[in-house]
User: Which sequence fits this backbone?
């Protein structure tokens, strides 16, 4: 599903250049659930953003679902993101003046899905994350866990090939974190490819594979026995 | 199409409602501009219409000329000599000044210090101004005669008939209400005259004139009052394409020459022209129209810039939101389109409200001045002006929207999302 070869990324800060990713080689098969770990500043988010086409690499190859991703202009990147990728952020990033339903509808709106179908689909995905009773609520009326579940429903609504989650539980307490991880595991059970960036070993162990980043390279890549979030409590 | 998509509008409403208070204040800016524009140009049009109404019965390029006393000694004459216009001056002026279309010699008993004629009918009597006139006068200043009557005609002049046209008030004072004055006789300074018409009284640019005035043929007048070939003053209409001020100068020059008046004598011949006065009035309303255009457009521009400003701020505030949208698949041009539409929409809403408000105020003023004696009628703003204003606003709204839209477009989703 994801093939990355010799990926480099530097940031320019004034006159200096900060080499963040120094040759990443990394493949992900369909249906995998991968945790990306590493200390702060090791380049986890940078890698995820490049995979998510929110950022571009300086060097290296990236293939997503057999499509070579290169020479992206903003319009093309937007279309690819819309069709192939679902994002879950640490800070939820819901649009605060839109209801849960409208938030979930948004990627479908940009897919030009007709209104009615859009609403049905969004309702369906909100039901899947257990928020049927909250579809008319604004984000400010939801708890952190509920917000993240709306965000997950939004990421899923567009039916992406890969789900990218950057510290999805970073802003949640451990109980809520487990609930969210349970949801993500269930989505993975249905066969969706998922990448989760995390600091926490607990969370990483709920994935099927852990990739360790340090100083811009992968220092460890291992398959682990998945811990089910439900059993964890 | 983006424009006719319900979702597009829902997105726009959503983001406008988010900043409701500021949106309203900004909208008021543009609204005020278009309101000023509509109200002022409507008022200018109203004045224009009002003056036109006032002057509609008078040839706009007409003038009057009369004689006074000399103020400069000339050709052996002492200063202070009284000048008398004569009938032969009419032909002289006509032959010398081809720009003259009509010329009507007039004379009056009353008005200028003299005693008015004393009029008697049966046991009723009164004093009224009596004018000696030619039919050509009607060509210079329209003489409205009530149904069944007529103004003085050529036959009256040739035969010096004892006929007269009376004023509305004269009719009221000398006749019973139900009585038809046409064909009846009245005595003007002891001579019987047959009434042939009743003149509708209208205040016009002539300056004097009264609803009791009586008109008789010039030829009859001079016999009745023994005035010979004397003329009180001349009413002159120039051809439409001629500058009446120039004609006025020429007329005075010719008259000075034939009456042996010093060319530099400013007092001996008096004159007055309507063209100049009318020009001043139309100049005034033209000026008002121009002013309304300048002020209105300046205010509209200021308002539209305000809208651009609020959108710029709102784009900055919404950086994160726009980043999220981009991450979810909004293309840069979709983001730009949305911001521009917001701008145009705000501009149009303000414009339409401004126009409606302006129209209401114009109606109100029109209704309030309906019964007042001021020249103000039908203060309409041509549809083309309104459409033009709306068009300008759409264009300005788009142009000003381009700035925040460009900014929104250049937001990189990665940077927007990183911003905490
Ligand atoms: N836009 C940028 N400009 C300059 N430097 C950047 C930029 N984005 C990231 N960096 C730097 O690159 C390095 C890697 O950043 P990254 O966000 O990928 O770290 P991370 O592993 O996600 O850390 P954390 O666990 O704290 O989220 C950091 O040193 C960061 O300061
Ligand atoms: Mg990070």
Assistant:
């Amino acid at each position: 599903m994801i093939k990355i070869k010799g990926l480099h990324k530097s940031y320019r800060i004034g006159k200096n250049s900060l080499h963040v990713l120094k040759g990443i080689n990394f493949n992900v098969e369909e249906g995998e659930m991968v945790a990306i770990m590493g200390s702060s500043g090791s380049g986890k988010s940078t890698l995820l953003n490049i995979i998510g086409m929110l950022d571009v690499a300086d060097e290296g190859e990236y293939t997503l679902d057999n499509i070579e991703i290169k020479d992206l202009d903003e319009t093309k990147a937007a279309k690819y993101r819309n069709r192939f990728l679902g994002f879950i952020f640490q800070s939820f990033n819901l649009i605060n003046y839109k209801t849960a339903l409208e938030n979930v509808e948004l990627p479908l709106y940009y897919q030009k899905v007709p209104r009615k179908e859009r609403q049905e689909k969004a309702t369906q995905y909100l039901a899947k994350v257990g928020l049927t009773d909250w579809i008319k609520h604004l984000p400010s009326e939801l708890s952190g866990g509920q917000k993240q579940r709306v965000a997950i429903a939004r990421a899923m609504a567009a039916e992406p090939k890969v789900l990218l989650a950057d510290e999805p539980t970073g802003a949640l307490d451990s109980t809520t974190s487990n609930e969210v991880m349970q949801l993500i595991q269930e989505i993975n059970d249905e066969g969706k490819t998922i990448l989760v960036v995390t600091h926490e070993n607990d969370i990483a162990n709920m994935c099927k594979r852990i990739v360790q980043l340090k100083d811009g390279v992968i220092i460890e890549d291992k398959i682990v026995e998945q811990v089910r979030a439900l059993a964890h409590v | 199409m983006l424009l006719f998509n319900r979702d597009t509008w829902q997105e726009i409403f959503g983001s406008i409602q988010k900043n409701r208070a500021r949106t309203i204040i900004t909208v008021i800016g543009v609204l005020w501009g278009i309101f000023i524009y509509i109200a002022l140009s409507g008022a200018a049009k109203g004045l224009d219409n009002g003056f036109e109404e006032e002057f509609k019965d008078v040839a706009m390029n007409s003038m009057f000329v009369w004689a006074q006393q000399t103020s400069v000694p000339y050709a052996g004459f002492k200063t202070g000599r009284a000048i008398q216009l004569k009938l032969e001056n009419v032909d002289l002026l006509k032959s010398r000044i081809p720009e003259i279309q009509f010329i009507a010699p007039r004379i009056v008993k009353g008005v200028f210090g003299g005693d008015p004629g004393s009029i008697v009918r049966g046991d009723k009597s009164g004093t009224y101004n009596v004018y000696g006139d030619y039919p050509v006068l009607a060509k210079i200043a329209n003489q409205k005669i009530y149904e069944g009557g007529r103004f003085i005609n050529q036959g009256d002049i040739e035969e010096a008939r004892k006929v007269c046209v009376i004023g509305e008030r004269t009719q009221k004072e000398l006749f019973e209400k139900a009585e038809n004055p046409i064909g009846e006789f009245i005595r003007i300074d002891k001579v019987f005259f047959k009434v042939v018409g009743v003149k509708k009284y209208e205040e016009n640019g002539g300056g004097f004139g009264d609803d009791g005035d009586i008109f008789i043929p010039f030829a009859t007048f001079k016999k009745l009052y023994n005035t010979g070939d004397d003329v009180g003053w001349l009413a002159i209409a120039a051809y439409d394409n001629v500058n009446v001020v120039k004609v006025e100068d020429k007329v005075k020059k010719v008259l000075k020459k034939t009456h042996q008046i010093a060319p530099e004598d400013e007092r001996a011949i008096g004159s007055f022209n309507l063209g100049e006065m009318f020009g001043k009035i139309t100049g005034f309303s033209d000026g008002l129209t121009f002013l309304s255009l300048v002020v209105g457009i300046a205010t509209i521009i200021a308002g539209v810039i305000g809208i651009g400003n609020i959108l710029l701020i709102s784009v900055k505030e919404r950086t994160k939101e726009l980043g999220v949208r981009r991450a979810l698949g909004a293309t840069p041009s979709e983001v730009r389109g949305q911001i521009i539409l917001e701008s145009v929409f705000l501009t149009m809403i303000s414009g339409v409200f401004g126009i409606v408000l302006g129209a209401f105020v114009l109606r109100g003023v029109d209704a309030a001045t309906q019964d007042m004696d001021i020249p103000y009628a039908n203060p309409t703003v041509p549809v083309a002006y309104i459409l033009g204003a709306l068009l300008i606003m759409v264009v300005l709204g788009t142009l000003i929207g381009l700035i925040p839209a460009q900014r929104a477009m250049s937001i990189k989703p990665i940077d927007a999302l990183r911003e905490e």
